[in-house]
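Database export, one record per block. Field names are fixed; values are copied verbatim from the stored entry.
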Amino acid sequence: KGLVLEKRLEHAIYGGIAAPIPPDSKLLSPNDDPGPIKNGAFINIIHHGNRSLALWEGGAAYEIDSNLNTVGEWCPGTTKPLEVGPHTRNDPDTGDLYFMNYNIAQAYLYYYCINPQGILSNTKIIEKQYTTMLHDFALTKNYLIIFDCPAVYDAKLIEKGLNPLQWQEKLGTRIGVTAREGKDSRTLWLNTSAFFIYHFVNAYEQENTIFIDYIRHDRLSIFSPTETAKQTPKLYRMSLDLNNKSLNEKILCNPIVEFPTYNHEYTGKEYQYIYAATKLRNKKEFNALIKYDLENNTIVTHDFGDDAEIGEATFVAKTNAKRED
C-alpha cells in the first residue's frame, strides 16, 4: 500500500526504521498505509497453505504468485489481515505455522497459530513490561520461547526528532516461556543481564530442561556504525530448567556469526547441524558460511572469497532424506 501511494504521489512520504517519519494525514485515504514506517515486505518469504507470503518487521503479510506479482494482503480466514512478524516457525509434525507480532504502542504481543490449510486456529496475548522489539522467537514441542531484550520503543521520541528505539541496558533481558496450547495463559519469566538477539536457531526439550540456540549480541547497535563495527555476535546455547526456574548460558563456538539456519524438519527437536554466515580475514561483510556440528563440536567453513558479501542462507533438504546433512 505504501509503495502504491508513493508512486501515485511521485515522491517518498515515509521514513525508515532509523528515522520514522509519520506521513502527512492529508495525503492518506482510510485504506492507505498509516506508517510511520512503510511496510516493504522484504525481510522474509515463506510458503504455507498453498500460498507464498512476503513478510516484514511487523505488518500485514503480502501474498505473491509464482511470478512474484503482488496478490494482496494475506487474510488467513480472517476479515482483516493479521500483523505478522518477520520470522515464523512451522511444526514439522502437525504442519501448523506459528508467528508473533509485537505492539509498538502497548506492552504486549500476540502469537498466532495457522493450521496447514492456512486458516487461523489459535490466538494468544502475552503481556510484557515494556514496548520492546522482538524480531524472532523459538518453538519446542510444548512451548514458545521469547527473549524480551531491552530495545525499547518510545513513539514520543519521534516528535523530538529522535530515534524511537532505544537501548536501555539497566532493564536487563527477560526470558519468556509460554505454553503453545491449553488454557494456561501464564508466561514464565526469568531475568538475566542485558543482551540482544535478532535470530534464534532452534530449541528443544529434554525432560524438564529446554535447550535454546541463538546468536547473541552484547547490545542493540544497528544505528551506530562505530558500535556495529565492535559487535561480535556469537553462537550461544541457553539451558532453562523448568523445575527450579533457572537458566545457564554458554558460548558454543568462537567465530563471529549471524543469519543462522538448520534443517527445519528438526524444528522443536534435538538436531545436529547449524549453518550461519561468518567473516574471514577481518572483513567487514560476511564472506563465508560455517557448518557447526553440535554433536562433535566441529566446524566446516566454506569460504566465498574476499569480494563476497553473503546474507541469509536457506536450508534445502531432499524429501524423506534419512539424515539432515
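Remark 1: The radius of gyration is 20 Å.
Remark 2: The CA atoms of residues 172 and 194 lie 4 Å apart.
End of record.
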